[in-house]
Amino acid sequence: MEIKKIGIIGAGTMGHGIAMVAAKSGHEVIMRDIEQNYVDNGLQKIDKFLSKSVAREKMTEEEKKQALALIKGTTKVEDLKDCEIIIEAVVENIELKKKVFKELDEICGPDVIFASNTSTIPITEMAAATSRPDKFIGMHFFNPVPIMKLIEVIRGLGTSDETAESVVALAKQVGKIPIEAHDYPGFISNRILMPMINEAVFCLMEGVASKEDIDGVMKLGMNHPMGPLELADLIGLDTCLYIMEVLYGGFADSKYRPCPLLKKMVNAGYLGRKTGRGFFEYTR
Ligand SMILES: NC(=O)c1ccc[n+]([C@@H]2O[C@H](COP(=O)([O-])OP(=O)(O)OC[C@H]3O[C@@H](n4cnc5c(N)ncnc54)[C@H](O)[C@@H]3O)[C@@H](O)[C@H]2O)c1
Q1: Predicted TM-score (pTM) of this structure
Q2: For atom 15 of ligand 1, which residue has the closest CA?
């Protein structure tokens, strides 16, 4: 099935980014958030990003206008009922996501595909809250959405081949590279990235090296653009801890044990860039 009209739930960091890349590739988009000011904020960010692209001669004024004309903001969930796919990007909370999908399930026709942009929540469990597990899939975009090429496409236990094919085709249409994974904790990205960050925190806690040297080894020796501790500060230490807990609980395997220093930093409120202090200090 070719997808032309896309519904987005949530106009935050990820939602407005997804809306923008979808509209830039010629898709009609309806973006929903709970309050008008959140919707307006998302629309303004899209306008600002596209204006910068015009200033840098990456697109014309006409192309910007065309993309903006394809995006409509709303606070009414019913406005999404005619979409062929709904991509959910609300905050990372399983109960909230299940509630959102249950509501959509009642409003949308049986052929509408539901996709979640979750980083960690099991796709199969959210799908089970709907009457369409065959039409339910994970579509994990990366931040910042307009820049990052990857979409991790995650099949739940009941996801049909047809749904996966439609979503892989859509990912390519919006200019991204899809990589498919099955639904296990952390999928591919966070299952590999987070234990690496966690291990870097263990190295720091055990005094293997200084924070600068731990990051330096990974940058200079492995060609990583950022060191793991610097990256943890960017992601947010609370988010890193949360994902480690999902891996630890999901696999019931001690190899995913969150580092006590990571827990201590989160308890202290040192969450990284967003609080001005994590492993490194940031002037706000
Ligand atoms: N930020 C990242 O780096 C990143 C990367 C990949 C995936 N994700 C995932 O994307 C999702 C969204 O993250 P974000 O960073 O964009 O969050 P965010 O807090 O920036 O935005 C979430 C938005 O959802 C809205 N919302 C809450 N309940 C809603 C509802 N019932 N209907 C419509 N909108 C509702 C909020 O008002 C908010 O505007 C999460 O599942 C997160 O794990 C985030």
Answers
A1: 0.94
A2: 13
